[in-house]
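Below: protein 1.
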Amino acid sequence: MARTVDHERAAARREAIMQAAAALFAERGFESTSAAEIAKAAGLSSGSVFYYFTDKRALFRAIFEQDLPASRELVERHAAGDDPVASILAMVDALAADAMDPLAPGILVEVVRQVGKDPQLEQVIAETTAVLHEGFAALVERGIRTGAIDPDLDPRETAQWIQVVIDGAFLNADPDHDPRPMLRRMITRFLSRPHHGDTA
């Protein structure tokens, strides 16, 4: 029983450290945030960060390592939906929801700054992006086969553009504005089959 309690406590402390770190990194930047400041914000002793993480970069990576299993689960959950367009839009909704987080713009800036300095972080981001890309591409391909999506679209290129549009929501993030209705509208029109009389 004691081991279960210790495991849960350790997981809770790791989570508290990651949440505090994300907020500080978004506000002050990675370089300007100390491990002691992170520990204090998490309500823990000054040495706690390096007890749970090997260094500050490992902590920064950990914030984004959570995205990989979450992305896999998201793709799996929507892969077999009856309506591929509805599945694509549900994935877009789930991914764009985080754009309303006040931390989103700041943490995105730090990812761009740090990814070139940390090959492991770059790999984490690349793997997560690839999982989502494959998920979107598979749904687009199925939608083309069923006649729900414009057959002139290339599934892999289309998946890439869907991700670009989602990234744009983060670059223009506003916690007081929900970007999802506009994203849904844009992507629905992008995927739809042209009507007779439409011009390219």
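Below: protein 2.
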Amino acid sequence: MSKYVVGVSGGIGSGKTTVTNAFAKLDVDIIDADVIARDVVAQGTEGLRAIVEKFGPDILDQGQCLNRRALRQIIFSDEQAKQWLNQLLHPLIRQETLRQTISATSSYCMLSVPLLVENGSYKNVDRVLIVDVPEASQLARSMARDDADEALIRSIMASQASRQQRLEVADDVIDNSGDESALTVQISRLHHKYLGYAAQV
């Protein structure tokens, strides 16, 4: 088990995955709640069966997998549906996250959680790293990446912690508004810092 856990978060479109992929190349174990959230609703899982039972077979795509875009449209326009989905998925995600954290073998591991601030799980890690970009960049990147309309991305941003709220709980901040070389320098500096902290545990 890793002796030191760094929680990583940032708003939609901030580049969390780019950052955690870079740490993974430095042989840091990454526990990604987004990946786990997809795994717990994969074909054949209890999670997917419950979702189909709730929303009907139209929630599946042609390959009988979860149609994420359709589900996202539902939960961002229906607060009760969103609460139901959270009550279903959060315990499943927590259980698998804990299992992977215990199994991590790198000197420190990273727990990447989109809602690290919102659900209070930042209190359960040794250090909090926030990936930060201006809100205008979040909007532009997310619309381009997801081929989504502005209203949907703005509603997702509004449902997340504000940029200020994330920065208030941060122990470390990566500014991801620059180029790749600027990002690499920041990641290298933090990697050595975290190795030092882990060695002291």
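The chain has a mean pLDDT of 93.
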